[in-house]
Amino acid sequence: MALNFRKPRRVRLQLTTIVGLGFGGFVALAIGLVLALSVTANFQNTFSLLNDKTILSTQSLETQVRTHFQSVENAVIGLKPFFEDGTLSIEDRNRIYEDFSIALQTNTDLTTLAITYADGRRLGVYRAKNGKLWRINSDAPPPGMRDEVVPVLSADSPPTWGPIMRHEVGLFANVSAPLVHDGEMFAVLTAATTMENLSIIVASQDEGVNNTVFILDGNGDVLMHSDADWIQTGGSIAENLPGSWDTIGDPVLAAMGDETKLEEFERASELGIDVSIIDAADDEYLMMRRVVPGFSDQPLTVGQYYLGATVSREVRRLAGSGFVGLGALVISVLVAIWIGRRVARPLRNLARQSERVATLSLQDVEPLPRSRVVEMDQVASAFNAMVEGLKAMNTYVPRSLFIKLMRLGGQKAAEARKAELTILFTDIVGFTALSENMSAEQAAALLNQHFAILVEAVESEGGTVDKFMGDGMLAFFGAPDDQPDHAEAAVRTARRIAAAQMQANETAKAEGGVTLRMRIGIHTGPVLVGNVGALDRWNYTVVGDTVNAAERLQHLGREVAGEPEITILASAETVCRLPNEHSQTQVGEHYLRGRSGRMEVYWLAPTAIDVLPVDEASEAPVSAAE
User: How far is CA 544 from CA 150, 547, 604, 622, in A?
Assistant: First the structure.
């Protein structure tokens, strides 16, 4: 009997079932994993954002406080050398009043500037709340100073901050530095600032009714409070300021002793920012604080607190967003990343560019980009306009000249006067022909490189760059600073220029670039130097026949035989003031266009060791005029 075995039936599934089950299972698994991970990720992201906000807001407050106090300390640091080197005499009261008044007018962070003499007398200037400046000349301490709070200093003491001082007109912080001559301290220079100036900073950091900003001194007294007129829990504490944090009347500050530190804010903690939760007045508050040392005898503390409900709502919103699905999750993440970058990037860029402005490195400042956020766009536009204005001012008012004039007494140093100076003119040989084969950008770049060499050489020898004329430069030596060796300084400058330009030519040759030949004319004589102009178009410059003669000497360099790389011609009036010069060759007397009579002219070697051989020196580089 034959057995009939049936083959087992294969399980068959429809394609729609496979795709449906597979895709459905995959989607279900993916969504389940995403939902599970999103809840955790949202909490982590929330605390990360809170960390960033805590760090940014606290550091911003600290930076502004530091900038304010550093501005006061810099005033002491900047004035100290002028007293110690004798530029400012402590006995010249009128000069001290004038310079201190200028300092207070240009630095709104300063309230008082004063000198304390060895006998206890004080001399200085104080700015009242209405902006009026008062002179100080008595034994009585002015606002911001008192004998028992000004630190005891020695000759080698750095600028030292004293304790916060209470005065009938307000709170003051002060910094003092010794004035030393020959190792002996002969007086103390003190700058003070009213703490009311910080109220603007504190108010600007307050983000609304649920945010409060404050500053504590080292004894725990509240110096500044952004909600002094009406605190979050109700009531006013303005009449209690300054006062101790536990008795001033703010329940949130009074509960700081029972706070609970939040460990989730690790990055903030690593930066020295303490973040904690405080229970007060039936509510929770998130508080962040940071200690700022260095601007009092004890460290200050800057801080702020938020109503906890604002933070809780943000946590619940971000946590709930994890249950809305994959699409909403992707959109929310993208939006969060976009917002985070859009908010943080301009702030970081603004801080970076502001640091460059604070150090006057204007050439390194990058323009802030425009923003779709109105407030950020306004900040960017105002900042860029400010930088452009500073660059324009720095272009037309050289910083080195400004510093010299201020050191010598402000406006009086710029008054027009007659003086004997040495004038130096430079010119590039054949630059017009050279530039014909260049683009405008190439010509400008070549000129900028050349002018950088000229300016560095002039300023390194104490000279003053007057102006650039085409491819030439006019500079003078002996003003506004007195410079007895102005003729020697001008010759040293010419040789510095020669050395630097020859080095630049060597580099250009190696790179296949353009090399330059130069003519330099130097003449010494009387000129009119100072402010010349009218109304608001003044220029600190030199005028006179001596200037014209130096320019003609530069033109005379065209008659030098051959094609020398650098030609330096100087008048006899300059050479006779060079006692140690041995690298000159007399080239005879010449008529100079626009001048009557002949001028005795000398050729100067581009380097002091380049002396013409005896047999060649008899052949003058320039033919004497008949």
Answer: 53, 6, 24, 26
